[in-house]
Amino acid sequence: MHSFELLSQKFALHFEQKHFPDEPASLYGPNEYFLGMGGKRIRPVLCLMGNEMFDDIKPDAWEMATAIELFHNFTLIHDDIMDNAPLRRGMETVHKKYGVNTAILAGDVMLIAAYELMNNINLLVIRQVQNLFNTTAKEVCEGQQYDMDFEKRESVSFQEYLRMIELKTSVLLAASLKMGAILGGAGQRNQDLIYDFGRKLGLAFQVQDDYLDAFGDPSKFGKQVGGDILANKKTFLLIHALETAPASQQKELKDIQQKRSADKVDKVLQIYRDCKVDEWALRLKNRFLDEAFTHLEDIAVISSRKEPLKQLAGYLVQRDH
Amino acid sequence: MHSFELLSQKFALHFEQKHFPDEPASLYGPNEYFLGMGGKRIRPVLCLMGNEMFDDIKPDAWEMATAIELFHNFTLIHDDIMDNAPLRRGMETVHKKYGVNTAILAGDVMLIAAYELMNNINLLVIRQVQNLFNTTAKEVCEGQQYDMDFEKRESVSFQEYLRMIELKTSVLLAASLKMGAILGGAGQRNQDLIYDFGRKLGLAFQVQDDYLDAFGDPSKFGKQVGGDILANKKTFLLIHALETAPASQQKELKDIQQKRSADKVDKVLQIYRDCKVDEWALRLKNRFLDEAFTHLEDIAVISSRKEPLKQLAGYLVQRDH
Fold first, then answer.
1. Which residues of A touch B138 (CB under 8 A)?
2. How many C-beta atoms surround the C-beta of residue B241 within 10 A?
3. How far apart are CA B270 and CA B105, in angstroms?
4. DSSP structure string for A159-214
5. Nearest Cα residue in chain B from A136
6. What is the pLDDT of residues B113-163, one digit of tens each?
7. Of A299, A132, A295, the residue nearest A203 (C-alpha)
8. Helices and strands in chain B: count of H runs, count of E runs
9. Cβ atoms < 10 Å from Cβ of A73
10. What is the pLDDT of residue A321?
11. CB within 8 Å: B127 and A108
């Protein structure tokens, strides 16, 4: 059994290679550039951990983990175009540096490269793994489309937002664990449980992310605190406030969104506090985290095998009391 | 054995179905819209013909043919963005009608849908088929990148242009035939021969396309005759003229390209005729066609099984004497 940290280091070494041919350099250069930016590589490590909960890590799991990371990077390259994002991890995005057309093609070929790796998986499980991968890949695209649609909409319900987050973020975490579990020989019920653990952990993580964007410690939170509020971004907090606050505060929230006042962030935060949206968000996060841990508990392996995932969950999402 | 026309009709019926779920309609609606535009469906029919040369058409070949057509449409949706094309088959392109972001995602999910279909292929050949598909898919992306690169370059050699056309156009025709042949149980040598037949047929077709754009009968050619010349598009004709014409005519060609004169097309055509570029192009086309037919002849099945592909080749490329 390996800890999350150790598997992360091992995967980083494994992933540190050329993934594409030399030519055309105008296509594959941008891909290598983007992969070279680094990243936390959480999804591939989840795949390795999903395998190791049930058996020693198989060579197939390394292939699959690499495919998952390539897939994730494909989505990032294309999402950056759609979001018109100039920077990622402090470096120029592919479309800014090389143009939109090359960024589209670079993403396309990154996705195909993921499938190339998956084609080597043991024939006994290749269909099962690819079926899950394909379903998940489509769901991630659907999540991105919903996200773009919601940006243009006046109002979005809590249920709609939850489903969007699930598709855009959670299912890939969940599927990464489950694909590893399949390769490790897990039975159907254990596969389903590890999937649901990942799904709920992803939701808890997103609630935490939305919370920290508003109430986080500026010295610890990686992004600008209040960024979501300034951008009128629909978040768990805003959607809940608009659904549950008294009519007067709902109106005030909407009015603030229309204006560019210097104290916009402070005013919104005050409404959130008045309506106890902050406390609600922490409860919601804890609920998803509890549900995730219940699924983890229910997996039928000795508890020592669950330790690395418990540690990882604690690293990704901090419990608040 | 079925003729090309009959298989085309059968495939059109088979393909006339919903390929995507209802929701999100903002993502899958554009995909159904694009597929509903129709098309000649040549690639999937090549897959069916490749199968039928060696055995009765297997259910897998229908799945594979559908996957190939979805892949082809994925490339068209993304290429239309890159080419900034407003229309296809007289209808608005996806990015014009629904925006670039949705067109990127719609293409992505179309590619994933192709892989979903391929996941059902017989395990005995799934790796071989997907391996060829993945290699071909990457090559098509490489061809598109070269095409974009060449547009910005001062000069492109005949060999470079030939390789670009091979990647962008020929390999998918060739692979469609070969994937069908694999599913039909063809041996390795027959697989290679049918691939090379498709590859050379694709090259002959492109030479013909470049030729007809300059010298075609306006009443028969589907596009505007002279369109390539007006757009300064690098074609087999232009590249050969710039490589072989006397220095004075090379200079004249380059001068004409800089200007927007009313008789631009006539002037370029005159140079082509003076340098006998037209005759050279017809010889080149015939050479590729001859090579294609030699590969077809060499396939080790009785000749009656080759008739449908011979007919198709005659339909796609007309021999000139």
1. 109, 112-113, 116
2. 21
3. 45
4. HHHHHHHIIIIIHHHHHHHHHHHHHTT--HHHHHHHHHHHHHHHHHHHHHHHHHHH
5. B112
6. 999 999 999 999 999 999 999 999 999 999 999 999 999 999 999 999 999
7. A295
8. 16, 2
9. 23
10. 64
11. no
Residue pair A103/A30 in contact (Cβ under 8 Å)? The answer is yes
How confident is the model over B12-62, as pLDDT tens digits?
999 999 999 999 999 999 999 999 999 999 999 999 999 999 999 999 999
Judged by phi (left if over 0) then psi (alpha if -120 to 50, else beta), residue A185 lies in: left
CB contact (8 A) between residue B134 and residue A119: yes
pTM across the whole model:
0.96
- Considering only the beta carbons, identify the residue of B24, B104, B119 that sits closest to A134: B119
Q: Give dist(CA B318, CA B69) in Å, integer.
A: 25
Handedness of CA A295, A299, A303, A305 (dihedral sign): negative
Q: Are A274 and A249 in contact (CB under 8 A)?
A: yes
Three-class SS state of A232: coil
* Chain A residues within 8 A of B101 when measuring between CB atoms: 81-82, 148
- By DSSP bridging, strand B87-88 and strand A91-92 are unpaired
Q: What is the ipTM of this complex?
A: 0.96
Report the distance separating Cα B257 and Cα B253, nearest Å: 6
As given in the structure block, the two tokens for residue B70 are: 């979805």
* Chain centre to alpha carbon of residue B195: 14
Smallest Cα distance from A286 to chain B, Å: 30
Cβ-based contacts under 8 A for chains A and B:
109
Paired tokens of A97? 């540096």
Please give the full DSSP string across B275-300, using - where no structure is assigned: TTHHHHHHHHHHHHHHHHHHHHHHSS
Assigned token pair, B245: 């014409």
